[in-house]
Please model this.
Amino acid sequence: MSSQLDALEKELVNIRSGGISPITQLLWKHDGDFITGWARTISQGNSRVLEVGCGKGGYLVSLASAGNECYGIDPLSKVSLSFAKEMAKEQDVDIHLLCAAGENIPFQDESFDVVLLISTLQHVVNQKEVLLEIRRVLKPGGRLLVSVPQLRGVYSARRLAAKVKGAIQARKDFFTMDFDSKRLRDILTESGFAILKMRGRKFLPILLPGLLSVLLKFHRDSMAMKIIEISDSLADRVHFLASNLIVLCAKEKQNGAVIPLSDVDFRSTGDGILLDRRPN
Model:
């Protein structure tokens, strides 16, 4: 096991044992619900779906319950796949799980309609190698939904300030790349994907997490959620403000043309399609 993977496993053990704050749990759930809704719209309930770095399997369980055929790979069996198996059993759905890494996906070419890569790309050593493997296993017209934390924008300044104060530990042990919107766009397009839509999530100025924690403490959950929705709106308008970036991509043909768009893509992006490349 690589040093990064070992460090990530230790962090996940801490998370799985409840080592995160209530506000962090709320923010993660909020983003997770957004991603689940987008993934359900793309997959339409009749797709073959793969998640690379599936973790606890929450997205796969949700998509399987909607009628999709779901597969997940993760190199961490004890802190990820075991939880995913248990969740699938509890929800009485079938998902297929394998202990494997994204650099060597154990499936044939053009096997999947949809691939999810959620909060995983920042942990792998060779990001482009993983993306090329995903492109290989996607069918013509397949869609990739990817999310990463943005650590090079405004949010990174808040994170740096917190590090100086000792509030959080440095993430270099298990973060192999710091992303911003340009770096993410570049690596996706260089790997043969057309970007259909990029969404920004969670603008978190330095005092906002404290305010949200106070609101939760006094059971003002609805007010907290309203503030989170406003922060999402700001982050989506100005991606530099976002703490998370979520991107819907299409597999391109060999000549660089974008696979024809579908109504599903328009519905799933909410406010239309933004393409980095146009069909030839």
